Amino acid sequence: MSDTLPAAVSAASSLEHKLTTRTARAGVIGLGYVGLPLAVEFARAGFETTGVDLDARKIETLNRGESYIPDVPTADVAEFHKAGRLRATTDASVIASFDTINICVPTPLRKTKDPDLSYVVSAVEMIARHLQPGQLVVLESTTYPGTTDEVVKPILERGGLVAGRDFFLAFSPERVDPGNQTWTTKNVPKVVGGTTADCTRLARILYSASIDRVVEVSSPKVAEMVKLLENTFRAVNIGLVNELALMCDRLGISVWEVVDAAATKPFGFMPFYPGPGLGGHCIPIDPFYLSWKVKEVGFEARFIELAGHVNGAMPHHVVDKVADALNSQSKAVRGSKILILGIAYKRDIDDIRESPALDVMAVLKQRGGHLSYHDPYAPHLAARDWPAGVDMASVPLTTQTLAAADCVVIITDHKTFNHQEILTHAPLIVDTRNALKGSWPHVFKLGAP
Ligand SMILES: NC(=O)c1ccc[n+]([C@@H]2O[C@H](COP(=O)([O-])OP(=O)(O)OC[C@H]3O[C@@H](n4cnc5c(N)ncnc54)[C@H](O)[C@@H]3O)[C@@H](O)[C@H]2O)c1
């Protein structure tokens, strides 16, 4: 489709005018870890912004002027809500009034590790029912290359409007890093790739209003692949260093000392650290979107599969470490009191999705361990959220709870943990994060003697 068709030219220049004068009405579909920070940045830039989500509790919270995402201050939500620039609704019919529509819905994996695009498809079908000429639709959910062109575009075009001519379509991967105070939605560069040059340009203009740097690429497919390269890069390097940790374990070398010393090389090396396994909504999942897609063209993504095996086995190595530690005190896993510290998938955040702590706990429970956990960010663990399927509640972290445990296992090293207190009062410790610097006879570290 040519970018120079008259209809496209007038629709594009009209939207460009609205974007540059901040009179465009921005819509965000899916107000989770990605969508809410984005909606707040659009509101901050001056756009009248409306979020649409199926979750009525989120909508009610936002419409009270409150945030439910730790990285988004309630003060910002309150300010923009009061100013009439940030609203939220479950009513999809508002989509017809938007000039721009950003889709930030989940893209999980099925149990078979195949992509589950059902959230994207249902959000796009919802948009298609209300699509208007001149609107810009941007998919942000992480997905395999080709999704925007092969899945999103045909659904949106069902009503007769054509992408690049009557409405505009692009992909722009989200790079949010929950808990990162330095790199935020505003200052992490944003990659955009549109179906036509106009689509790319309009998406760039939208994001430039609220994000410091926007990087254009030639197509949605390239933008989709950029995100998968970034996350596969991390999954593979974490897999490498996790395997190195297992080698170090056998060889009696501290992998932590090795990585820190290697990181002094000023070029050609980037430190990755071992741990109890991958967690969160991105690194354990996204690479499999790519390996699934390339199977269609007869290609086997060997690095991705291998990293998946190594990283996926880490929780079992942690369980073995716990068994070794207890064994050193002539105890068995069965019947021992095991206190897990930190169940979120990374430090100082409240997200437990895919957290390796849950796998470690499930296996320890299955082997007869008496489990408890402490996590200030996750006061409750619902039965449906982990494989062992029982409700649990965080216990207070006191000298008594530490002393009462046969083994304390540090899975996620939140900043609130008092290392000295843990060292002094816990009789036996398994440290999967090198949280406790130095070595002590009662501390067993992953990847260290
Ligand atoms: N969380 C991260 O750190 C992160 C980082 C980069 C990219 N991503 C990607 O961004 C996307 C969103 O992730 P997230 O962490 O924000 O997910 P999330 O689960 O926190 O939020 C998604 C929201 O979408 C809503 N939703 C689902 N279907 C909907 C529909 N049809 N209409 C309206 N709302 C709907 C859900 O109710 C939920 O509030 C995923 O593709 C993820 O891979 C996430």
List the helices and strands and how they pair.
Layout: H1 6-20, E1 25-29, H2 35-45, E2 48-52, H3 56-63, H4 74-82, E3 86-89, E4 100-103, H5 118-128, E5 136-139, H6 147-157, E6 168-171, E7 190-194, H7 197-208, E8 214-217, H8 220-251, H9 255-262, H10 286-295, H11 302-328, E9 337-341, H12 356-366, E10 370-374, E11 380-381, E12 392-393, H13 399-404, E13 407-410, H14 419-425, E14 429-431, E15 443-445
Parallel strand pairs: 1-2, 1-4, 2-3, 4-5, 5-6, 7-8, 9-10, 9-13, 13-14, 14-15
Antiparallel strand pairs: 6-7, 11-12
The structure holds nicotinamide-adenine-dinucleotide.
Estimate the helix proportion, in percent.
25-40%
- If strands are numbered along the chain, what order do they take across the biggest sheet? 3-2-1-4-5-6-7-8
- The structure class reads alpha/beta
Based on CA inertia axes, which overall geometry fits? Answer: elongated
Low-confidence stretches: none
Q: Write out the distinct hetero groups bound to the structure.
A: nicotinamide-adenine-dinucleotide
